[in-house]
Design brief:
Elements lengths: L6 E5 L6 E5 L9 E8 L2 E4 L8 E4 L2 E8 L8 E4 L19 H7 L4 E5 L16 E2 L3 H9 L1 H4 L20 H8 L4 E2 L2 H19 L2 E6 L3 H10 L4 E7 L41 E3 L13 E3 L14 E5 L9 H10 L4 E5 L18 H16 L3
Parallel strand pairs: 7-8, 7-11, 11-12, 12-15, 15-16
Antiparallel strand pairs: 1-2, 3-6, 4-5, 6-8, 9-10, 13-14
Helix pairs in contact: 5-6
Keywords: Hydrolase, Signal
InterPro entries: AB_hydrolase_1, AB_hydrolase_fold, Carboxylesterase_BioH
GO molecular function: hydrolase activity
Length: 380
């Protein structure tokens, strides 16, 4: 259980001693050791020079959090979504404990990354691709105040964001200030994530992989790339649906390999994305909501490297993902992936939108859905 102390105690990495400081917000945290490192860098000539000078690119920042008492055999590796950084999981914008602290309290080591060319993982001008960012209205209308904009039917059910979710509210302002420019190309991001986080997995060994939103496709990529090192995938509203964007125009083709921008292993093998033959699933298609659901035409090729990785997809009640995550799950199941879909409203957890782990009932989701999945699937 969390302590009732009105101070925060930090076990420093270098001194291995306990320091207690007053906390104005009275956060009650888990005693832990913190370290960080970088991995995945490559050297290239400094753009615009020919004198042999080099710079590093492609590296990722990795934060390693170790509770004073580790009771779980596998660490949790957390990967954030588009426009975000690993700070998403540290604490909430209104100062409550985040998922990193919750899972440390349950005895898990935690690894949190910043995606390549994002946040504390340097973007190199002239080497890395173009970037884009989210404006404040986008964040409010898609994530934090969706009930005020009603861009999709379920948005009206949103109740769990702390504060009013718009610019000028101090909780929103704190959250929006944490957003970062991101690579425009999901293909470029996928290639860099595969290299850098693949190397991280080689170094740290097997993990519980937790993804959110844009990083959902990285779960399938990393599970395919290092199947023996990914023991389960927990995908919080993973990017989708297959083959095409949904809900928000333009509804353009995307993820040509089904759920990913870059190739993953299929059986029978494919030589290009055109070997996958999409067909419409009428039961999961809703043109009025901007969603066309595709699966493979039978017989479906199998995502063979994911067939031994138990996978959980979690969908909030009031998120735009409520419209199409079932299509993503259908694609995974047809391709032989052992997938379970938990829609939070079905287990009595209501009112959440896309940033569920930051919302007022975020720890309830961690305990009743994610931890329970780990205990029943990985720790059984």
């Amino acid at each position: 259980m969390f302590t009732s102390l009105s101070v925060v105690c930090i076990l420093t990495l270098l001194q291995l001693s306990t320091t207690c400081i007053s906390s104005h917000t009275q956060l009650q945290g888990t005693l832990h050791r913190r370290n960080y490192f970088y991995i995945g860098e490559q050297y290239v000539n400094t753009p615009g020079t020919n004198n042999g000078s080099e710079i590093a690119f492609g590296q990722i920042y990795v934060e390693h959090l170790v509770p004073a008492t580790v009771t779980q055999s596998l660490p949790v590796l957390m990967i954030h979504g588009h426009g975000m950084t690993g700070t998403n999981f540290l604490n909430t914008p209104d100062g409550r404990l985040g998922w990193a602290d919750y899972f440390m309290n349950q005895g898990f080591e935690i690894y949190i990354v910043d995606q390549p060319s994002r946040g504390r993982s340097a973007w190199q001008m002239g080497v890395d691709g173009n970037q884009s960012d989210f404006d404040a209205t986008y964040i409010s209308s898609h994530f934090t105040a969706v009930e005020k904009f009603n861009l999709w039917p379920q948005a009206a059910l949103h109740t769990q964001w702390p504060g009013n979710g718009t610019a000028g509210d101090p909780i929103f302002d704190n959250f929006y200030a944490s957003t970062m420019p991101s690579l425009v190309s999901d293909k470029e991001s996928s290639i860099k994530v595969k290299k850098a986080i693949g190397k991280l997995l080689d170094d740290i060994g097997p993990v519980i992989l937790l993804t959110h939103s844009q990083s959902g496709q990285y779960g399938w990529i990393l599970g395919d790339f290092r199947p023996s090192l990914v023991k389960t995938i927990i995908a919080l509203e993973p990017i989708g649906p297959p083959f095409i964007n949904a809900v928000f125009p333009p509804l353009t083709p995307a993820r040509p390999f089904g759920l990913t921008e870059i190739p993953v292993t299929y059986s029978p093998p494919i030589s290009s994305s055109s070997d996958l033959k999409p067909e419409i699933v009428l039961a999961l298609t809703n043109a009025s909501l901007g969603t066309t659901c595709f699966r493979q035409a039978a017989p479906a090729r199998q995502m063979v490297n994911l067939k031994e990785i138990p996978t959980l997809v979690v969908t909030s009640e009031s998120s735009y993902h409520a419209i199409y995550d079932s299509c993503t799950v259908e694609y995974l199941a047809q391709a032989g992936v052992p997938v379970t879909h938990v829609e939070l409203a079905d287990v009595g957890i209501k009112g959440n939108a896309h940033m569920m782990f930051m919302e007022k009932n975020g720890l309830e989701i961690a305990e009743k859905v994610v931890l329970e999945w780990i205990q029943n699937t990985v720790n059984k």
